[in-house]
Every structure is written in structure tokens, then in C-alpha cells.
Amino acid sequence: xxxxxxxxxxxxxMDGTLLDLHFDNYFWLEHLPKRWAELSGISxxxxxxxxxxxxxxxxxxxxxxxxxxxSKRLSLPITELKREVMDKIQMRPDxxxxxxxxxxxxxxxxxVTNAHPDSLSxxxxxxxxxxxxxTLVSTHEFGVTKEQQELWQQLQQRFGFDPKRTLxxxxxxxxxxxxxxxxxxxxxxxxxxxxxxxxxxITEFPxxxxxxxxxxxxxxxxxxxxxxx
Length: 229
Known about the structure:
By secondary structure, this protein is α/β, with parallel strands linked by helices.
């Protein structure tokens, strides 16, 4: 699946890639509409309809991921509302072993998320991600998202990685396509980002459902072995 001898840097998405996307789907599609309906006096069904229409309009833009934007737009304390259901924030069960193998391999490993810094902080508080990854980046630092080429240009300038010798893992196909356009040499999709939903059939990129299939290759390449997957 991957030739780890050709990979020096690993860029990792967070939600749906290292963490179970169920929390985010539940919050944005269920919890937030319910709480907004309570405040505004409209029905939950109407709140869902209005919010989902706005989500579609802003999809891929920095505003979609910005908690400050939604707090102002809805007059709601979004971060506090996330805390109400933060028990749903969970790492994927296959994530710890995967991150441990990457860390032990000596490769440069960078988390790159479109999540707002407050959301990133909440998830770092709730999980052990920070114990595995030294460099955690929110694209809000750059003012552009992973869907945009400007983000990849700025990332490469900051960290100095060779795109051809870089692996990027994400659950979003449009974002993987953006990375591909930039020239990232190795791309991997996550087929099952939400544990409460069935896996997706992905044909555009190599895809996995469990990181355990990668562990032997990571360790073998680190030890100088030739392992074909």
C-alpha cells in the first residue's frame, strides 16, 4: 500500500483520521441544532434545515471551521456547548499503535487540522494526542484551509518537507485532492471516519479501515528492511 522507504514526513488530519468523527457529526448535526432551537424558539427540524444549508454554503471555507464565526452567527457559546457532549470525543482504537510506530520510526510527524484552535485544545485536553505528536497545527494560524493551495504552500515553507517524500492521511476526499494538486507524493484516505456509520467505498485514493495493516511496513522501513504491503 505504501513504500515507507520513500516517506520522511507524515502529515495527519485529526477529526475522522485520528479521532472518531462521531463527536463532530453529533455536535453539528444534532446537539447544536437542538440548543439553537431552544434559544431561537424554532423547531429542531427547522434549526437542522437552516444550519445544514449554511454548512453547505460555507463548506471548505475557513468560516465553516471557525468557532468564533458560529458563536457570533448563532449568539451561542460554541466551545461551552461542545463541552456539554465532550464525553463523545474519542481516539480511534487503532490510533495509539499507529502514532507510536510513527514516533518510534523517527519520521517528522505533524498534525494539520482545519479545526479551530479552541476545538483543537478541547480535543487535546480530552485525548492523549499530544503525547504522540510534538507538532500540532490549526490551519486558522494561516487563515486558509487544507482545501486551498495557499495552505500547502505555507505549510511547506514553514516545515521544509519534500512533498514527494511526504505522506498525508485524511478522511476528506476534497482535501486529499487538494494535497494531490500541490504534489504530495503519498496519499491515504480513511474509509471509516465515523464509528457509527458504515465504511465508504473509496476508489480515488488508497484507503484503510484499520491502521494495524500499516504497522509492519512502518517498523520494517525504520529498521532498514524491505517490506511489501
